[in-house]
Amino acid sequence: MGIFKRVSKAILTGVLVIAWLPGFPGSPSPVSTSLASEPLAKGIQDNSFLIEEAYNQEPGVVQHILNVPIDFTNGSREIEPSFTQEWPIFSQTHQFSYTIPYVFAEDDDGLADMRLNYRLQALTEGESTPAFAPRLSLVLPTGDRDKGFGTGVVGYETNLPFSKIISDRWTLHFNAGMSIVPNVRNHYLNNYNLGASAIYAVSRDFNLMLETVAGWNEDIAEGALEEEATVDGTTTALISPGARYAFNLPNDAQLVFGAALPIGLTSDSPDWGIFFYCSFEHPFRRTEARPGR
């Protein structure tokens, strides 16, 4: 339990430090007229855990994201932290990001397969239209295949996220995606995913969340010899209640902490888990003040 305790302690310490920073009194600060006219749901928009939102980064603003899922299955524990950075490419229309995942398994640990991502803001959210931002990803074979942390070959992934604020307090998200990993020990591996979430804004800075995801995944059968490799299929599904809180910092920066309790719904899924989330978003060049920050 050493790693779990260290991760929990680090996140709790961060929350306490931020809470004691100057400029964060117990009572909320006055809200500007323009801010008050916006839906409460706009206070925190691009900070989901298991679901991908359809909101690209604003021009001049970068986001750093740390996810720490801890899964428990049949008495064993696996921790898979990942770090992501999201950068706008000149405007909100185009976005580049990368994800570096790591795995702490019961008997080993190591880097998993990294992802390089491009996302197009195909639709911006309107009164009757959702935001839509399709993503294409290159999956790099940085994980050790022999340890089960990667496939050993380059893969390709796409995801189709939709997002829509439907009332002052409610936001809905929907995902559909797939990945193809060619020539894994003479097999093509195809994976498919669906997901959806509902977010309720208790206040501008505090949200309750319910996310659900499902995956249909293929992998090479464990222990199969190169010439005898066969493909195994699994079906995973999780439902995950959670919450997140935003600290709006000076200079248009925002720090978000969150946690969730994923619960497995199929025999191929983890029994249950704990999910920790931390995001820091800030301008890297001078921009106009952003609403909701």
Descriptive report:
By secondary structure, the protein is mainly beta. It has one domain: Porin, CATH 2.40.160. It contains two helices and 16 strands. The chain has helices spanning 2-19, 33-36, and strands spanning 61-73, 76-79, 82-89, 91-104, 109-111, 114-120, 131-132, 135-140, 155-165, 170-184, 187-201, 206-220, 231-249, 253-260, 263-264, 272-283. Strands 1-3-4-6-8-9-10-11-12-13-14-16 form a twelve-stranded antiparallel barrel. The longest helix has 18 residues, at 2-19. The chain is globular and about 60 Å long. The model is unreliable at 10-33 (pLDDT under 50).
Question: What is the strand and helix layout of this fold?
Answer:
Elements: H1 2-19, H2 33-36, E1 61-73, E2 76-79, E3 82-89, E4 91-104, E5 109-111, E6 114-120, E7 131-132, E8 135-140, E9 155-165, E10 170-184, E11 187-201, E12 206-220, E13 231-249, E14 253-260, E15 263-264, E16 272-283
